[in-house]
Amino acid sequence: MKNTMKSKLFMGTAASVAALAMLATGGMTANAAETYPSDATQPDLVKLLADYDNYYLPSNSFDKNDPSTFGKGVVKNAEVLRNNDAMTQNINNTAAKADAQGDGTTTPTAQQQRALIDSDYKMAETLPDSLGPVLSQYFSEGLANGSLPLTYQLLISDHTDPKTGYSVSLMADYLDTSSAKVTFNHPRPFVDRTNAGYVAAGLDKSVNIVRVPVWTSADGAKHDAGYDGFLTSGSFPSGHTTYAYSGGIALATLVPQLGPEIVTRASEAGNNRIVLGVHYPLDIMGGRIDGEASNTARWSDTQFRSSKLIPAYNELQSYLASKCVADKHATEHANNYDTVQECVNNLGANAADGYTNDFVDAVSKKAVTDRASAIDVYTNRLTYNFSQTGKAGQDPVVPEGAENLLYTTFPTLTADQRRQVLAASEIDSGYPLDASSEGYQRLNLAKAYSAKVTVAANGKITNIEFGQPEASVVADANAKTVPVYRAYNPNSGLHHYTTSTDEIASLVRQGWNYEGIAFQSAKADAKNPDIKPVYREYNPNNGTHNWTVNEKEHNDLIKAGWKDESAKDPAWYTDTKGTVDVYRLYNPNSGEHVYTTDKDEYNNVGAAGWRQEKVAWQGSSAE
């Protein structure tokens, strides 16, 4: 019986097969030039946010050389914009209520202070506390002392723009919202909106906001909301929110162990624009869509991903793991991801001792005290109390490439499976901005990052549970076979096979290409004489692995200096009465063995110079 999962898999792995042939003949592939397609093909924000025209329609684009062109338009949906105003006023006024830090008008409250800090447009100020107190300190120190140069490039600064003199990072500053702002040409909450059609539509001329006073923090830094600079600056979409989500989602993919907390902190940064009274909820929702599209573009750019994102991921995971082990917050695991996950668990950074805040308003509805409440608050900010203006109950829509937002969270899931996770986590259809957003408005990343995904032996997802302390992929307990996963290293040309989801996930996060389920192995059964062990050996001289059912071959390799990696437990088991042939090929140049159930791959690679070693063992049929 042919393994249909593998048949489908190898149709999409021509590059891997070609590489096998190249290695057989000793060929080498040249390194791609360091140019990134995503730099030249940014998401079209005007198109993604076009649904905004159904609520407010500008009369013209803004011409910065003619101030009289600013803020002219027509209110198309007064109910939507009335809620937009009401939530702006509520969030702004609530944050201005006096507390222990300030009176809200002459001295800023605690929430106003955080909003002013976020307004500085500095990712190093906004993001760290999303990791909790301990990991936040590690992260900030690493950015400041040069321990995290690759992470710094992505989130803080890669270069200085010669035209503006501003520092530009590769992720947080990737998108430019200026074109969208001048196109939608919508005035800020605190200005006179008569020319924008508000008064004619029965709405207030301006929103009754409390202006947050200029504040100097304990470190001597001056923080100013900058109201006067927004008099002829379009509100939609929010550039600060685009920046916050672009950087926040990027950090969540570098530290997926705390994805829900990180994106909720990004949502707070966006919400803080309303706290200052310089933006409306629709502006923040638009900025979130921008940030999601930004990361989708970058993570879907395979050149940028392999050259910039994965190295930064490995850098930050290694750094945090070493810090956690040194300070005895975790023990050292076989891979950095598991070390950091243990650290997160021990510190409670994914629970009550991580990112928290007690700021409550009509939208957040509750304080952030743990992961569950963080996800709730994030979810509430997806819709900002708007009623649905479009059709509810539509089928889920996942934007093209958005599955890559879960690349490091669920590396052992296929692209289609990650899309299923996103679809299952979506909010309902029909809320403002949904119609044009290609599905971005519905994405609930805080929820998706917290999933436990159960996968059957045939690759089908059988269950998804959200709100978990750890993101995970687990095998269906009722499965009668055990999948063997395959990954390919584009740098060395080597393949690896394992039944361990942790091991394969670690490899993919390090830059290996995940090639799915190679074949099915049998479950251990001491009472079944047809079940035989498959041994695994490692050659420390050239980095290759070997898998065999031949005990003599296994013992001979160990005597020759290979490391026995199945001394405690076999790599997996084979059922000698299995119905799926697993073929073995040998590369005489590299010394690598490759295993496949695909007869075409076996023949094609054999024709390229690999030695065909016939059937290695029998695989089992997936259920």
Q: How many domains in all? A: 2
Which bin fits the share of residues in helices? 25-40%
Helix count, per DSSP? 21
What's the total count of β strands? 19
> Proportion of β residues?
5-15%
Query: Any low-confidence stretches, pLDDT <50, length ≥5?
Result: 1-33
Average pLDDT confidence is 92
Characterize the main sheet: 4 strands, antiparallel
Query: First CA to last CA: what distance?
Result: 12 Å
Radius of gyration: 27 Å
- Secondary-structure-based class equals alpha+beta
Task: Identify the overall geometry.
Answer: elongated
Characterize this entry briefly.
The protein has helices at residues 4-11, 14-24, 37-40, 45-48, 78-95, 110-118, 123-126, 133-145, 149-155, 178-184, 239-254, 259-275, 281-300, 302-326, 336-347, 371-380, 415-425, 445-448, 501-509, 551-559, 599-607; strands at residues 56-58, 73-75, 159-160, 167-168, 215-216, 222-223, 452-455, 461-465, 472-475, 481-488, 495-498, 513-522, 531-538, 545-548, 563-564, 572-575, 580-586, 593-596, 611-619.
